[in-house]
Every structure is written in C-alpha cells, then in structure tokens.
Amino acid sequence: MVGPVPLTSRRHLLRGAAAAATVAAVPAVLAAPAPAVAAATVSPLHHLLRRATYGPTPASLAEAATLGVGGWLDRQLNPSAIADPVADALLARLPLAQASVAGVRAAVTAGTLKRYGWEAMYQLGVATVGRAAWSNRQLLEAVVEFWSNHLCVTNPFDEGWDNRPDYDRAVIRRYALGRYADLLKASATHPAMLSYLDNRHSTKYKPNENYARELLELHTVGTIHTEADVVQAARLLTGLTVDWKTGAFQYDAATHATGAVKILGYRHANATAAGGRAAALGLLDYLARHPATARRIAEKLCVRFVSDTPPPALVDRLAALYLARDTAIAPVLRALFTSAEFAASAGAKVRGPYEDMIATVRTLGLGLDAAGVEGVRALYWMAESVGQAPLAWGQPDGYPDTAAAWAAPAGLLGRWNNHLNLAAGWWPEELVRPAASLTAALLPTVPATYGELVDTLTDRLVGVRFADSHRAALAGFFGKQPASTLRTTDGAANGALPYLVALILDSPYFAER
Amino acid sequence: MNPTPTCGCPENTRVAGLTRRGLLGRAAAVGAAGTLGGLAADGLASSLAFAAAPYTGDTLVVLSLRGGFDGLSAVVPHGDPAYYQARPGIGVPKARLVGGDAMFGLHPALAPVLPLWRGGQLGAVHAVGQPNPSRSHFAAMEELERAAAGTSVRTGWIDRMLGAAGATSPFQGVAVGDSLAPRSMRGPAVDLSLRSIDGFQLAGEGARRPMAATVRALYDGAPSVLAAPATAAVDALGTAAALKAAGYTPANGAVYPAGKLGAALRDVARLVKAQVGLMVASVDFGDWDMHEGLGTPVAGQSMYDQLSTLAKALAAFAADLGPEGLGNVTLITLSEFGRRVAENGSRGADHGHGNAMLLLGGGVRGGRVYGRWPGLAPAKLVAGDLAATTDYRAVIAEVLARRCGMASPAAVFPSLAPAPLDAFTAR
C-alpha cells in the first residue's frame, strides 16, 4: 500500500486577492484616449523599447539605433542567438530556479533542500526579476511574463514546490515564441498546472471541474462555453494527473472517464481508457485553434503592448494571422510591433508597478550583485511591496494589465518610495552601482543652471523634456528657478541629487510608456 | 457509489439557469478598462471639488471572504437531516456546535464570537445568493461587486454608495490591507486603498524637502487616469501622518490575531475612532476555496483554522471598538458563492451557490439566523447547490437604509426590489 498523496489545501487560490477580473472596467462610456504627457517627443525606437522591453537604457537605445526596428525585432525574436552573460551568471547563483522536478527532488535527497519547502519557487521569482532587469533577451522576457499571466500558475503555491520552476523552463520559456497549441498542450500535461487547478485529483469517480473551467474561460475561448461544456471537458481531462512518487506528469488510464464527448465543436468517441490522453490532447489542439481563442490572444497581446483599448482592426488582423500561421506567436508579435496602430500608440500605456520598478533599475544603470543574490532578492520583495511580485498573482487569471487596474493611490506611493530607495542606494544596498556616486553616474559635467540640470536628467532618465511648469516645480524643490545658477557644490548636484532623480521618476512622464 | 459517465454526482449535474456573460460582454469590459482619462478619474477630480454634508451614519465594514466561503460549515443547518447525508465526512457533528437554535448552530471554531451572538450583536442570514449565479470565481466576484444584475452599470456598489453619500475625502472609502482596491470600489467616487496606516508615507519628505508638494505639481495637467490617484495619494499622506503621530493601542485589552485580517481590522477600528469620516471600509480575507481538505472541525483542518482566525479577529474588533463604537459600525461578510452541498472525494466541497452572511454591529438584531431555509433535500437543491432565497443586495440595502442614512438604496442597487429582513434596528 502506497502512502497518501499529500493533499495540501488549495490555499494558493484567491488568497486575500483583491478584485477578481480586475481587467473589467470602470467607465460606462469610452472616452477617446487622453493625449499622452510626452508622446510627441518620443522617437519610434524609444517607443518600441518602452513597450517591448522593461525600459530603455543608453546601451539598448544605441543598439536599436544601429539595428533599426526590423533588425531589432529579428534579433529579439531569435533569443537563443543573443549572448546573455548577466542572466547566465544570475542563474548560476540560483541553481533551483530552472530545476527539473527530478532536480528539485534530488536536492531534497541530497539534504540541501527541505521537502515541500518554497526555496525553489522563491529562486524562480528572484531569477525572474533579475532576467527582466538584465537579460539581453528583453522581448523574450516580456513575452514570458505575458504567457505566465495567461497560463497563470501562481508562484509560489503549495503544490508547486518541486514543479513550478520546471513549468517556467519547460513550458513557458520553451514555447513562448513558438506555437500556442504546443504551449497549451505542454501546460496541460505539466504537474504544475495539473496541481494548481486540481486536475491531478480529478477522476472518473469524482471529476473536479476547476481546470476544465479555466482552460475554457481563461486559457482559450473565453466565456462562450456552457456549463455542459465544462462538465464534459472535466470528464475528458480525467487521467491527466501527477505521479505522486516522482512528481512527474502521468496519464492514468485507470481514472479516465470514457464515453463520447461534445465540447463546443469538438466531438470524440473517447471509447477507450487507453485512448484518453490522445482524446484530451485533441481537445487542446481544437481549442488552441478556435477563432475565439485567436481573438482573445490577439486582444490580450494588444492590451499588453499597444493600448488598454485595443484597436479593433489590429486585433482582427492579428487574430487572422495567428490562425493562418497555425498559432505561431512570433509572426503575430512582428506584425504587432510594425503596425501603424502600434506606432500611433506612444504614451498610451501606463506602466504597472513591476515594470515601473524594473525600468527604474535599468535607467539608473543598477547592476546585478557582484556576488550572491541579496540585492536582486530584495528587488523581488520590493515588487511584492507594491502588489506585483513576478508570477505571484493569486488567481488563475494573471495580473491585470491596464492603467485603471493599477490606479490606486497607495500603489503610486509605493512606486515613489521605490524610486528614492533605488536612486539613493538605500535599498537594496547590494546592487552594483554604475559609478561611485549618483552625480558621477548621471552628471559627467555639472550643468550651469537648475533648468539645465533638470533637462540633463530628464533626457538621460526618461528620454523627454518636461514642460516649463514642471521644470520650474523641480527647480522649486530646491527653492530655485530654472534660470538659477547651479554651483558644483550645491546639494542638488550632490547629496540631494537622489531626491531630484526620484521626483523625475515619480512624474507622469516616467509613469507612461 | 457506482460511477458511470452519466452519474448523478454533483460535478456531473448539468447546471440549469446559470447565465454566463458572452464573449462580447467580456471583450467590451476588457476594452473599457484602461481608457486614459476615462470617466473614473474625471469623476474623481470633480468629486474632490465638492463639499458634502457631514456623514452621520454607521461605518459599514465589508469583509470579503474570497474563494467561496462554505456557509454550510460556518452556520450549520443541523436540523436538516439532508445535511449529514450529503456530508458524511465533513459535516460538523451536532454535539460540536455552539450557539444557534433547533435548526442552526455555529461551527465550534466560532466560539470566540459566541458572547457577541448571545449578546445580540452578531447574527447571520442563510441561503443568501446572487440573482445570476456563476460557479466561476471571476464571473461571480465580478457580479457580486458590480451588484447590478440585469443592467449595464459598470461601477462597483461601494463606489456608488460613496457617490450617493457624497464622499469627498479618500478616507471616507478605504480598502484596508491591500494596495489594490476591490472591484466593488471601482468607479468615479474617491477612495483609498492602503496596506496599513503606518506604512502609508512618502520617503524623503521633510521640512526642507517638499517631496509631496513637488509631486503634486508634476501631475498638474497630466491625464486624469494618472493625475487623480496621484493627487489623492498626496492628500491622504497628510491624514495618515497625523494618525501615525497619534499612535494606537487597541482598547479594552483587545488582542487581534496575527496576520493580515487582524492587522486590517485593527486599522479599521483606528480609522473609526479617529473620526476621519469613514463611511465604508473594505477588508479582504481570502483562502476559502476548499476543494480539498476542508476537513473535520478540529485544529489543523482548513475550515477550522480559517474560521478560528475569523472569529478571533471579529471578537477583537468588537472589543476594541467597545459597545459605543460598535453602535456606530455594521460589519457584513460577503463571498462570491457558497459551496456544493455534497462533499467531494477530497474531503472538500466544490463551487456552489447559496451561502451564509455574518452580521456584526450594535445595530444588528443578532443571536439568530435570518432568511427562509429552502432545505437540503435533493429535490430542493439547484444543481446540487443550496438554493438562494435572499438576495445579498437586499441585506446590504437594509443596512444602507437603516444604518447609513440612505433613504433610497436604489442609487446603489439599481435593479433591486426591496425586501427587508428586519435584521437591523433603525439608527
């Protein structure tokens, strides 16, 4: 007699989560998008890097200027050809962040990890922050975040102790720029998803509808399905489970419910237990190629990369392309980033708290710890403090991705505090700073006036010039006018510089992307 | 049990009468979410410019038990024999129940609030539900907090309450314990979410470093989706600073349990006593989605432990406020749905429908369970679920009318037919 499967309770789902489906809207009437703060002054390349990466840096802007939009996309859509030394160094310090299920369990056997402990999952969270900040494969990282939300398996969660890092590596990252049909099937046959949404415990005796419902509602077609579709899909998916001895995916024919099914337009005789796996994968292939799935994915990609109110014509074109290219994602991304709608959308998105933090790290030029991971680990907790630790959204629908969803005063306050902590180097202390002082990093020569000081900093940190009234407000912080003479010994260019930098990052110019 | 592909077990029962929003509805909702400069922020800006009459009603505390609270385990219908038949493993034995009457009893983990039940400050409503139920967490929470079935209203009900009551300060509608406001607060009325009062401060601010004032100036002229929350944040910083400077010690020896719920209710009590004009506070307490291991009523089992935390926090909250403070507060619990009547194979229960609400406050006519009990016999169930005989909005509407001085709850619940339970005294 084997021991029982550890039936940890489903504490991960809906743990004190705030609004459900936070993407749902406030306004009863759609107003035209308001003009962006600084759209007119942003170059097309700067616009591309604000959207397709976690924030421009002087180096990434220079590279993009050399490659052009097409060349930059070509390079980023082939990430394995891009050298990634900082990410490699980071992962070498976080050996469990990309471990297989067997690898995590081997660490338990070796006595270096506690069984059911969350260390591997926290390593994954920390690695995700570090890759967003410092990987050269920036578009891949952005798309990985997109899929991690779309096929959300909250990290950390109870039953993910041995499988959640593998889900990141072998499912999300492996197929992020491949075909969605492959990504969906990989998720459906992975112990992380099967545990997270309870399918591992769903049997012909007691089907559990949780995964079947989210598969239809969140992962594929949306709410066009009926309750009968959910019930039938739950039956068809029985048998997709986890081998409790190894933690690996297992198809258990003995618990599969046979019998003909009809789910939306998918029909299968499902006559034998042995054929249950193929019948279930057939459903996933059908759902991945459903026009409603194409439309939802196109729309979500547009919300992520173009506008909170996606242009319908662009959604139509991308959905058609997704189907025409048999669910391949890279062509859809290329079409999106080279579309007229994208070009016209500069400044129409507002950064979420996580990307705001990473963009701050990037524009300030903060680097990975010289050794260890304390600094990057602190960044993980900094993101958590503003409500958006990576991969940690508590519900299966992934983090919301619209300005309205993140427009809480308290969230803004958290960002502003992060800006000062990062600019001043108070927290985290372990990140490598680009120069001995902020002055040395940002002011090669000290400008002659307070107005020129502001211009130098906004050019460098945000890529735009502020309006006169806002230049005056920043000079006024020091009790000065823009025309006031700046002496090299003034606090504004020395010890008080972090406050000025933080205020620039607090401004709406940096909040938009 | 003789399982066949068409067995009658609840998970295989076709759910009748559930309406689901179509793809177009969802798409429209997603599309409307992020309009820069949308109505939400514009409305906020204009409402800040208004002055309103001082608020003299109860502070309404909305405690959201997210994940699907199992009302059948909390307020147990021990007088209905079908209850024990449906839950042979996880049913709470009658001998273990506390309080209650011939029909209902409270789960033993609720013992800390038994004095409040017996004293009449705590009551319950059973067989509560939504008019258009869904077993999807997301769809159910969306509708629960929109609370406007059958209409195209997109705001949340707390937002409409704040608007109807003329809220002008962020501290009149506060989500405590999280930096994200719940769906129920979405809309034009001004509100605030904060993880904690003491944590709400702007780094670097000082007499010679006017950070907040400079931030305010930088948002002058920005699109309102950016400017409105920034301005509200700067305003709220001043209030929070004053509260923090004053410090806080719970009264009457109240001890809140460790964790988010206790900390959040402590801050709510603090805001009530500070008289910042708090009309409504929203607090989340999640982790109720007990598909597995809901368990028997002993420590270490999920339901027992969760209810225990809930009861300790409510008891501390009531003690901290004292009888006089509690006389100006009404707390209600809400959850997106109840759980299936029959237990599943994992010592848990799947998503269901009808549920129980808890009511706490000086104006509650407590010590009893309100609502018409529809019964748990198989023929009385709706797709395996407890039928709902009371619309949850009717309970809130009664609070608004009798405790919050809102003559017409129609502004908050546009499609609701009034149906008072008489569970609250008039202020």
Automatic annotation (TrEMBL), chain B:
InterPro entries: DUF1501, TAT_signal. This is DUF1501 domain-containing protein. It comes from the Bacteria.
